[in-house]
Amino acid sequence: QLQLQESGPGLVKPSETLSLTCTVSGGSISSSGYYWGWVRQPPGKGLEWIGSIYYSGSTYYNPSLKSRVTISADMSKNQFSLKLSSVTAADTAVYYCAKREYGRSFEYWGQGTLVTVSS
Amino acid sequence: DIQMTQSPSSLSASVGDRVTITCRASQGISNWLAWYQQKPEKAPKSLIFAATSLQSGVPSRFSGSASGTDFTLTISSLQPEDFATYYCQQYNSYPLTFGGGTKVEIK
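^ Those are the sequences you sent over. The predicted structure of the assembly is below.
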């Protein structure tokens, strides 16, 4: 059974960089055909796709965040990570990591982690 | 970006009711559309992919249909555990985009 688990600081200061890691168990992030992505949800609001990394290493970012986002993968640890720079209060959200197979929906999700941007 | 317009934003229904939620894409997305269910404080759960394909383990009372750029999620007989917020999402092109959500509440 595939499981995803987000980890990282729950509080980040304005202008600093938000860093989260998603640890995958029960499957390999290097398996072909899979996208590993990040989705966020501000409190009381809807879902926003941040970006994804393909098993090959190709990355795809939301243009609204592209200048501030980096997604990378560590195959040796079976983890992928999100860095979001120059954060503001508007970046306060629950951040989810998720897995999607080509042609399908995000089938597997982490439980989510709340990141608050505040001084 | 492809805009996904979901309607209604909320609805009240009773157990046993037939419920329909609509999502309209701002341009063609083939059938690369997913539906998710989200309960409070929980991660979204995939219900439907490729507009009409039921995710494994999802009850058959959930179904999806497509007509051009209009997509529909139908719950044939609403059950108590179905009260939640539902989102559509297109994955035809980047950036991936979600609809605004439909909250299904108890009448």
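The longest strand of chain A covers residues 93-101. Chain A touches chain B at residues 37, 39, 46-49, 52, 60-64, 96, 98, 100, 103-107, 109-112 (CB under 8 Å).

Shout if you want it in another format.
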